[in-house]
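User: I need a structural model of Haemin-degrading HemS/ChuX domain-containing protein from Herbiconiux moechotypicola for a docking pre-check later this week. Nothing fancy, just the predicted structure tokens so I can convert them on my end. Input:
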Amino acid sequence: MAGEKEAARSARLQDLLGREGLTVRELDLTAAQLGALLPLLGHAVAETANHAVEISQSGAYREAGVCGEAFGTGGGDGASVRFHPESVGTAVVCAPSESAGHGDHVGDGAGCALEVFTPAGESAHRVRLHAAADRRLAERVARGEFRPDPVSRIPSSWRTSGTAAWPYRPWADVGWEGADQLAQLDEMLTDGGVRRRRRLATGGGAPMSPREIDVTVLPLVLEHLCARGLPVTAAVFASGVMQAAAGRVHAVARAGDRIRVLVGGAVIELDPVAAADALVVNAHGVHGPTAAVELYDGDGACVVAFTQLGMVGTSDHEAWQHLTGSLPAA
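Assistant: Understood. Predicted structure tokens for Haemin-degrading HemS/ChuX domain-containing protein:
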């Protein structure tokens, strides 16, 4: 089932290019330039999805960058995304053709949008452009009239001239097993976390105390977070991109097999049935070891991770560690 849905998404680029009434322009941007462009959008809807989880958040982008850079999720204001440069293929701007009339949408709802694809043509991230100013900016970039200048947050002394050794990975010498939370997320971005998951399953990552848990308890975990008002960071993975949201869990609703969760300013929809297993993994955080609840599909790719990233209150961190430590084994 996962393979069928991935194939459907990989066909989306060809579908867009051949659709009547829709003008598609390619953006000649690197992943870093794309990361510099997104925060310039004033009011957009950022969407990232895999076959098990979807995340959507409106407003200005709070954070957009690539592996190796600093990363901040904040708490409710705007989407935060992170790209794996080698996994970003092309980005396009789609808009209804003038001959298609003045409707806001064409076909399946694809109106004015910016969409990022992998080199294989899989859809990785979509930005719906609702504001006229945002649409004009995207069109200027597509016509080559404006090129965003990425300002890396990596100290220049860590990089060589050019891009040959960039992005710099400060954990490269010790490996991800001894690195912090952000290094874990970046490792999962390289191949969906498949190699990392395999290593954890064979006894690797001992410092992080990986533990398999019962995947069916996730709805109860989310409802507990909502009831207690504990802050959490939710990171959703697609091919080469991660979109994260942080803050309180404002609401949890079940609709059949799917779960709808409001985290910070984002809406997340999960299909727990599509998750084959789940792990609790600890990594270095602000308050010391900090757990992450990671859900994986049948291919061993991480579809979503829940953790506490960045600054949280000490009591909130202790409550999170107690909760994750008490989850039943698989």
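Before docking, keep this in mind: The chain has a mean pLDDT of 82.
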